[in-house]
Amino acid sequence: MATLKALSMRLKAVTNIQKITKSMKMVSAAKYAKAERELRPARSYGMGVQTFFDRAEVKQKEEGNKRLIVAMTSDRGLCGAVHTNIGRQIKALVPELPAGTEFKLICIGDKSRAILGRIYPAEMLMHFVDIGKKVPVFGDASAIANEIINLDYEFDHAELYFNIFKSVISYNTTAVPIFSRKNIEEAEKFNLYDSIDENVIQCYNEFALSSLLFFAMKESAASEQSARMTAMDAASKNAGEFCCGEKMIEKLTLTYNRTRQAVITKELIEIISGAAAL
């Protein structure tokens, strides 16, 4: 049987955990509401770029054997399987790559680096930290896009993996292509637009990648906050309500009171027995 001190410490720990998870749920709810409001205008950036690429028939090389994989996560956890789903899809993709394919990884956020860096340390090209601690802005996406564009690694295929927000309890992990400047130049219908020169293509490539990353960061932020809110709500219920079919705090309180009563009864019996022996 557990001692009174152990039961008291356990009960206090569970109660404190419940207070923390409830507070985190409230904070996540406020951040989620803001992230959802900011997501609606941000979607025009990503959707506009993808629509333009589709109409211009920008495509990646089919015969290339160099691949770039970009994983979009954040630095923070306690949000369910938001980050692990990204790593799971990438780990499932790698064995299916054609033989002889060379791939490199770019991890945006410390969680993706922690998940993929242990398995593919040699393929890690670069990673970015301090993601998710503050509200993502277009300047953050531009800085990341600039680093990717200035890479020495020339890729034939590139994909960006991120979570698309659906609802408070739902999100989808998806991948969108990242086109290089060479892919844009070789597009069949891109020359239909006026004033297309080398400088315009370079500027548009930078803006398109920044817009796509900004869109992915906003989608990921909304998905993360909604998942964290749901996870903290479930944790609060697990601490305060059910554990193995019974209420955890009530069960611990009842066990503590019974143990305390048993200790008091035992001490009284010892005192009475000693007095009777005299």
Automatic annotation (TrEMBL):
GO terms for molecular function: proton-transporting ATP synthase activity, rotational mechanism. It is a peripheral membrane protein. It is found in: Mitochondrion inner membrane. Keywords: ATP synthesis, CF(1), Hydrogen ion transport, Ion transport, Membrane, Mitochondrion, Mitochondrion inner membrane, Transport. One of its GO terms (cellular component) is proton-transporting ATP synthase complex. Signal peptide: none annotated. PANTHER family: ATP SYNTHASE GAMMA CHAIN, ATP SYNTHASE SUBUNIT GAMMA, MITOCHONDRIAL. F-type ATPases have 2 components, CF(1) - the catalytic core - and CF(0) - the membrane proton channel. CF(1) and CF(0) have multiple subunits. Belongs to the ATPase gamma chain family. This is ATP synthase subunit gamma.
